[in-house]
């Protein structure tokens, strides 16, 4: 067991974890943050994407011990986030999900694309989403929803875009 | 699946990391971004006894901008290169490559040193750094040594990295302002490992031309005759295709089948065309 202190969604957490425990299992099983989903567990499907120190990361390919003294954000932590709010709305309007398994990570990835200004065209959005697999939608509605959210955000804060 | 049980330690310095590595023997494994190693552990293809986490060592996170080269610490991430957060010796080639490497959520943690150490034949950095004539700087208990990237990678997942050594940095020569670079990665989906990878660096002021194929059934393959031909700015596409083909055939130990030979030829032709003004 290794002692770690992690900031999760703004709150300080201390725990003892076995080194092999992934960040994803730590979040799901120790913190009950089950919005982070596990698909492939080897970095291909993207369902487990969270933010570590503000940057997207695969929580299945990140050890919980390696997050000692780091800040982690999961889908549960974005309640007041304006970009996620816009995405939540456009995903709803455009029917950009069916089963919802990939959706938390789609939202986190899309938010990162919008904030890094990499959601300017369909091509750019599709490239940026290549690491997040959806088995239901065929992606069309997801891409449309992200493009609309990106436009909304750009209108609200023209200087930021 | 889940990773097998393992011990974990995060040393405070490179020297401490080397001591731990020496004491752990065959059980010890250095982990940086872990974007390949943890996938291999989850698939139970790797089961080290001790992970030595070097990802936060300040001496491996720095990038030094010298007169004639840039030294990139081994734990500089692909995302840092993509975003231009470290000095770029390559006039945009390295950021352009980094942006095609896996997915953003992998690039934020995966490191240039990790990519070199693993030496996946389809990986980008071994081929690109070979094309840039970079050196890999290794740090071991008996001191530092430098190897050309072309010598460092010896085969599929094989390098000259000794058991008691850690990659400290990569030293990439600065290209002159007139340099043109070509880069083509062929894969079915954005972010996948390449089926064929071609990198061209043409720096007439330094008299340097090099064409390298990645995903080439072994270490990055320098196309010697094609490199010489690029210096002459070939206009005849058939001659270019023929020279690339003969370079590929010359590497008979790679056992390219017809499909692969075709893919590598297409990638190399397109990459060369990018540097022809």
Structure description:
- The complex is a heterodimer of chains A (161) and B (277).
- By secondary structure, chain A is of the alpha+beta class.
- Chain A has 2 domains: 2-77, Beta-grasp domain (Ubiquitin-like (UB roll)); 82-156, DNA polymerase, domain 1, CATH 1.10.150.
- Helix content of chain A is 35%, strand content 16%.
- Chain A has a 5-stranded mixed β-sheet, with helices on one face.
- Chain A is globular.
- The termini of chain A are far apart.
- Chain B folds into 3 domains: 7-53, Uridine Diphospho-n-acetylenolpyruvylglucosamine Reductase, domain 2, CATH 3.30.43; 58-173, 2-Layer Sandwich (Uridine Diphospho-n-acetylenolpyruvylglucosamine Reductase, domain 3), CATH 3.30.465; 180-275, 2-Layer Sandwich (Enolase-like, domain 1), CATH 3.30.390.
- Chain B contains 12 helices and 14 strands.
- In chain B, helix 10 (224-231) packs antiparallel against helix 11.
- The longest helix of chain B has 18 residues, at 258-275.
- Chain B starts with 6 loop residues before the first strand and ends with a helix.
- Chain A binds chain B through residues 2, 18-20, 22, 25, 41-43, 46, 49, 52, 55-58, 60-63, 65-66, 68, 109, 112-113, 126-128, 130-132, and chain B through 1-8, 10, 34-35, 38-39, 41-43, 51, 53, 55, 79, 102-106, 108-109, 189-191.
The best one-word shape of chain A is globular
Low-confidence parts of chain A lasting 5 or more residues at pLDDT below 50?
none
Largest interface: A-B, 32 and 30 residues
Radius of gyration of chain B: 19 Å
Could you give the order of strands across the largest sheet of chain B? Answer: 4-5-10-6-7
Q: What is the total number of structural domains of chain A?
A: 2
As residue ranges, the low-confidence spans of chain B are: none
- In helices, the fraction of residues of chain A equals 25-40%
- Report the oligomer: heterodimer
Question: How would you characterize the largest beta sheet of chain A?
Answer: 5 strands, mixed
Termini of chain A, distance in Å? 45 Å
For the terminal residues of chain B, how far apart are their CA atoms?
Answer: 51 Å
Give the overall silhouette of chain B.
globular
Largest sheet of chain B, in brief, is: 5 strands, antiparallel
Text of the CATH class of the largest domain in chain B:
Alpha Beta
């Amino acid at each position: 067991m290794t002692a770690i202190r992690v900031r999760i969604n703004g709150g300080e957490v201390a725990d003892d974890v076995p080194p092999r425990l992934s960040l994803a299992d730590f979040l799901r099983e120790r913190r009950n943050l089950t919005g982070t989903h596990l698909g492939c567990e080897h970095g291909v499907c993207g369902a487990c994407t969270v933010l570590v120190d503000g940057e997207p990361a695969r929580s299945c390919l990140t050890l919980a011990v390696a997050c000692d003294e780091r800040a982690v954000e999961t889908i549960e932590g974005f309640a007041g986030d304006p970009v996620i709010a816009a995405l939540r709305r456009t995903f709803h309007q455009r029917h950009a999900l069916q089963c919802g398994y990939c959706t938390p990570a789609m939202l986190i990835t899309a938010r990162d694309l919008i904030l890094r200004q990499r959601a300017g065209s369909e091509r750019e959005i599709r490239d940026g989403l290549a690491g997040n697999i959806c088995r239901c939608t065929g992606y069309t509605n997801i891409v449309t929803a992200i493009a609309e959210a990106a436009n909304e955000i750009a209108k609200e804060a023209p200087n930021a875009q | 699946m889940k990773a097998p049980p393992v011990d974990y330690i995060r040393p405070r310095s490179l020297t401490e990391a080397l001591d731990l590595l020496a004491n752990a023997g065959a059980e010890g494994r250095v982990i940086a971004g872990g974007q390949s190693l943890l996938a291999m552990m989850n698939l139970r293809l790797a089961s080290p006894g001790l992970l030595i986490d070097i990802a936060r060592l300040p001496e491996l996170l720095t990038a030094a901008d010298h007169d004639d080269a840039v030294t990139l610490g081994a734990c500089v991430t692909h995302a840092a290169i993509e975003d231009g957060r470290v000095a770029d010796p390559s006039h945009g080639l390295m950021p352009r490559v980094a942006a095609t490497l896996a997915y953003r959520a992998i690039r934020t943690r995966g490191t240039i040193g990790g990519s070199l150490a693993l030496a996946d034949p389809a990986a980008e950095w071994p081929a690109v750094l070979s094309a840039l004539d970079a050196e890999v700087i290794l740090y071991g208990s008996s001191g530092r040594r430098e190897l050309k990237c072309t010598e460092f990678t010896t085969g599929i997942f094989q390098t000259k990295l000794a058991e008691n050594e850690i990659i400290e940095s990569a030293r990439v020569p600065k290209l002159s302002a007139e340099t043109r670079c070509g880069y083509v990665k062929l894969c079915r989906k954005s972010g996948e490992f390449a089926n064929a990878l071609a990198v061209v660096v043409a720096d007439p002021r330094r008299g340097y031309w090099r064409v390298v194929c990645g995903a080439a059934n072994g270490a990055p393959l320098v196309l010697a005759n094609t490199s010489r031909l690029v210096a002459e700015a070939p206009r005849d596409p058939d001659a270019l295709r023929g020279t690339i083909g003969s370079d590929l055939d010359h590497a008979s130990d790679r056992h390219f089948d017809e499909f692969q030979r075709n893919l590598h030829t297409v990638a190399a032709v397109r990459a060369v065309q990018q540097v022809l003004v």
